[in-house]
Amino acid sequence: MSRLSRALPATVLAAIALGLALFAAVPLAVVVGRALGLPGHLAPFRWIGVLREPDRLRALASTLEIALGTTVLAVGIGVPLALALVRLALPGARAWSGLLSLPAAVPPYLWGIAWIDLANPRTGLLNQAAAAIGATRPVLDIYGLGGIVWVLGLSFYPLVMLPVAAALERMDASLEESARLAGASPARAMAQITLPLIAPSIASSAVLVLLLAASAYGVPYLIGTGGTTHVTVLTTAIVNLINVGDPASLADAMALALCLLLVSLAAGGIGSLAARGERRRAVVTGKGQRPRPVRLGSLARAVVVCAVVVVATVAIVLPAGTLLTVSMIRSWGAGLGPANWSGINYARVLMTNHETLPAIARSAWLGVVAASLATACGAVLAYARRRRPGVATKLLEWLANAPYAVPGTVLAMGLLLAFSREVRLVVLDRLTLVLDLFAGSAALLVAYVVKYLSFGVRTSASALAQLDSSLEEAARVSGAGQARAALDVVMPLLAPALGATWLLVFLPVLSEITMSVLLVGPGTSVIGTVLFELQSYADPPAAAVLATILVAATLVGQALLHAIRKRGPRLAT
Amino acid sequence: MASISLRGIRKTFGIVNVLTDVSLEVADGEFVALLGPSGCGKSTLVRIVAGLDRPDTGEVRIGERLVDGPGAHMPPEARNLGMVFQSYAVWPHKTVLGNVAYPLRLRGASRPAATEGARQALDLVRLTGLGDRYPHELSGGQQQRVALARALVGEPAVLLLDEPLSNLDARLREEMRAELASLRDRLGVTVLLVTHDQAEALATADRVAVMRAGRIAQIGTPSRLYDEPIDLYVAEVLGPVNSLPVRSVRQPSGSDDLIVETVEGCTMSVSSPRPLPTVEPVVLAFRPEHVTIGEGPLTAAVEARGYLGSRVELTLAIGTESIRASVPAVGAPQVGDHVPIRISGARLLPRT
């Protein structure tokens, strides 16, 4: 092996390590450090003082209420759906599971926009429909805490449904069958054997929902500030304070960021406990036959089918249809029929508004570059971790995974605080390295890559774990050097996983709002920020146009992902 | 073709001693099997020959070349080897022909030459015409043959087989075993086989090395190992064996034989092993087929009877001990019978 090819991987690893230290560790350290007080005048608990103000305390309480409420709703929908899909022989279960997993693929704020169109008290389509059949007062009001929980819960239930369904499918039928033979009724076997076995996967997915709901920004912003009932949560409070910008507000923002970080750390801690429980019940991952579907009486069956149809309608068909319809209506309030349809909104948003097309282009290229970087760096890190297990690579892997658990608002704030002024590094009195993140879109790119690098590491790591090391060794023994074996055998076999990772990063970046709202500068707006402006101008059709485009892009992306994953099983020979 | 020479190989993984001072010489063209239970270090030894693992100390030579030793390490791709893995490791993204042609391409063959060579190798393992298939379209046995063709196609100096047959069902395994032996006779390649199946080792190898906890316990021809194991462990690895406790041993003057008392009231004459085991405790060991029924100095009660077609396996009680016997099915006794038995070919072996 040449010296270059031996030195290259180490150099790449070192570059990734430096990038992570600079753009993940430093920003977080800055937030935590400044919230606790700078060295010299440490005031460790000053940040608690901020919570004495009732407004701030209310924001923390609202965050916790929304997080818990969303988790309860998502688990309440997700677990029964998983049981219905896997254990009841529903016709077309596979298609149902594809359709029902869509809500989580679309950023929640798009569903939020749809629900505002549907259920705002003055002009909401559902309220109009209710008025048409005789209601004297608006029957639904999306604004407020309940509305936020409703939208987030309907967006996040697939994050519970999918892992629980997977756990149910992995479960060896003999576990339940032996309970039946021991004398348990089907219901008893379900309650005493099946549910305890899948409990860890319910717990760990619930924690993920808790984390996402606590750090959500888009939905609490749209639904919490749009109506007459104002709800402020930690994320929206932090963004408001940063926008005010004076030193006192910034100090408060940092204190709230620390609160948010602690909430997510606590959730993360519970999550890793749940993950440990999942490993302890590794028996669930055993081979064996899929459990037999439970046969239901025709009445019970009809009830279940109805429930599934209702969820699909409320969570997907209704809001997605609303976005599409609203994006096409010529004038609001003149009916929803074809007579009122036109493409004028599309022309208006895409052509007349000079900000839209550049924002779409910027989001697209940021998505391409961020997805490519996160995928490539993730693959390198995962490969290095497998090749050289040790403290250094473990630390790197941790550092790459950690930012995903950090609320986007806190991460963006850290980048803002650490790099809002240009950083000059003078090397040997001669070479001056200037790091100016906030010229152009560099800050956005850095934030996206740091946030989603975790996807790259995790998918590559799990794909590598499935890849029997003898495949690579067979290439070595056949006469291929390490680099050649990686190129000829490892890379082609990883390609489907890498393609899937790329899409998994590209899609959320395309519609990212939480970090973008803090990091866009003048003239660098992205799709998410433009969409929020349109929505704030109370121009629902214009906002619906961009929302529809994003939903369509997501659907195309999901179809691609499905196609890539279908090719996957060739690996398992 | 080349010989393999291993001297003083040691390997530890963390605190586990996987190999402790292993030396082994495999002659040019010889077929040697490494036999032992899982965890005895046999796979690690083959991976060291392949260059996939590096020994902590010791020397590895393939032919005249030092491939591992103090300060020397030749990477696997430079060793000119063929290897069949337990998992087959057939690349799922390449066609059968692509798999088999790959080593030739790496050796610098042109595309047509590599394809031609790969076709010949596929003919050799009787997969003619399956070149365009993908591995997932093949059965386990066929994938195994692809792995074998890929290992042989580059005309390697040494063929390494790491439990190649253990994932096949019993019938296919027997068929492949015969095929391996005939291929090896035709090609004359040096083979190192790792297996935990004693029948596989006995049927295919010129010499068998029985491994135990990171050492070679005994090495020799199959028949020598089967008939003259140095201890009970080796005897057990090579096949079912009975062992009876030994109470006393005496050698009547003027006789080569020993008089051994085992269970109460049961003495028998045993031909004296040379050298006499010096390691205590010793046991009296004999194989089930060494028990004959119908006449003899001992009486045994039939406790259980298993019908195997041509033979019957009996569990016999002698005093408080029970032994297994394998006797012809014709005229075999029933459970509850008391029969006279004779034990021939018993040996005194150290228990360890």
Mean pLDDT across all residues of chain B, rounded? Answer: 88
| SS-based class of chain B | alpha+beta
Strand residues, percent of chain A: under 5%
Backbone CA Rg of chain B: 24 Å
CATH class placement of the largest domain in chain B: Alpha Beta
Q: State the low-pLDDT regions of chain B, or none.
A: none
CATH third-level topology of the largest domain in chain A: MetI-like fold
Please count the helical segments of chain B. Answer: 8
Q: Spatial order of the strands in the main sheet of chain B? A: 7-8-9-3-10-11
Provide a quick synopsis of the model.
The complex is a heterodimer of chains A (573) and B (352). Chain A is mostly helical and 573 residues long. Chain A is 74% helix and 2% strand.
Question: Can you put this structure into words, describing what you see?
Answer:
The complex is a heterodimer of chains A (573) and B (352). Chain A is an all-alpha fold. In chain A, 74% of the residues lie in helices and 2% in strands. In chain A, strands 1-2 form a two-stranded antiparallel ribbon. Chain B is built from eight helices and 21 strands. In chain B, strands 7-8-9-3-10-11 form a six-stranded mixed beta sheet, with helices on both faces. In chain B, strands 2-1-4-5-6 form a five-stranded antiparallel beta sheet, with helices on one face. Chain B folds into two domains: 4-235, Rossmann fold (3-Layer(aba) Sandwich), CATH 3.40.50.300; 242-350, Nucleic acid-binding proteins (OB fold (Dihydrolipoamide Acetyltransferase, E2P)). The radius of gyration of chain B is 24 Å and the shape is globular. The model of chain B has no long low-confidence stretch (mean pLDDT 88).
List keywords for this structure.
heterodimer; A: about 575 residues; mainly alpha; MetI-like fold; two-stranded antiparallel ribbon; disordered N terminus; B: about 350 residues; alpha+beta; Rossmann fold; OB fold (Dihydrolipoamide Acetyltransferase, E2P); 2 domains; 6-stranded mixed beta sheet; 5-stranded antiparallel beta sheet; about 35% strand
